[in-house]
Amino acid sequence: MPEPGRAGTTAAPTDGADDVARRVAGSAAAGCTLAGAVAVTVALIAGPGPGLTGYVSEAGIAGSGHAATYRIGVFALAGALLLLAAALPAGVRLAAALLAAGGLLTGLSGAVTCTAGCPLPPFERATVADLVHGGASVAATAAVVLAMVALAVSGPADRTLRRLAAGAAALALPLCAAVGLAMLIVGRGTLVGVLERLVLALTVLWGLTTATALAVARKEGPPVNASGIGGAPS
Predict the structure, then answer these.
(1) 203 near 141, Cβ under 8 Å?
(2) Taking a C-beta distance cutoff of 8 angstroms, is the pair 109, 60 a contact?
(3) Burial of 43 (0-12, 13-18, 19+ CB in 10 A)
(4) Within its chain, how far is the Cα of 85 from the centroid?
(5) Which residues of the chain have a pLDDT value below 70?
(6) Given CA atoms 88, 94, 97, 103 in this order, what sign does their dihedral have?
């Protein structure tokens, strides 16, 4: 029989429970990401919005026809970010904190809808609701992209998570910069609409693949001896 308390004889029960909890959170995050993305896409395609010339948020304006579907999708994506933060390894606290912040800000953007056309400065006159909604949406996207960067350079994260984050960040950073410049220089139009959708599609794809990777990841257990019991025999 192995001696009680000998190092390496058994895996700590709490470690196993944490591993299972993180994989469950990853599975839930993947499901919420997929459901949220589908709901928002349906609202965009089926609604009477301005197409690629408008902001994605216009699908959530009251009276747009599919506002409820859009907001449900946004809240599902907010939940997905919070679940993804919970599913990350314990050593990547900065990335988890950024994802949690992104989830809360996404929820705020879904709770506070913009007015018709989602006007934003400097080319349009915006209401307080427009500024709150727009600010929350921009900050949420920034938090998620920064989480990609933090995860890409994080030592405790495994190679798969780092590579997914690095690839997504390499694409998202220039796209975000292009969106910001286009909003300041050109304003609302097809260019901003297309760039915004590319950024959002990229973040959703990264969230889905990362959540899936976390859901299927398994922590290696202790060595098993010939008798099938972890650790060296006594």
Answers:
(1) yes
(2) no
(3) buried
(4) 8
(5) 1-15, 48-50, 218-234
(6) negative
Per-residue confidence (pLDDT) for residue 219, from 0 to 100: 58
CA distance 82 to 231: 37
H or E segment to which residue 145 belongs: helix 128-152
Secondary structure letter of residue 53 according to DSSP: G
Pairwise CA distance, residues 89 & 77, whole Å: 20
The upper half-sphere exposure of residue 215, i.e. CA atoms within 13 Å in the direction of its Cβ, equals 17
Give the residue extent of every domain in the chain.
17-216
Distance CA 229, CA 207 (A): 38
* SS3 labels along 183-216: HHHCCCCHHHHHHHHHHHHHHHHHHHHHHHHHHH
What would the pLDDT profile of 66-116 be if each residue is shown by its tens digit?
Answer: 889 999 999 999 999 999 999 998 889 999 999 999 999 999 999 999 988
The confidence score (pLDDT) of residue 9 equals 44
pLDDT of residue 11: 44
Q: Which of 194, 200, 195, 165 is nearest to 180 (CA)?
A: 195
pTM (two decimals): 0.84
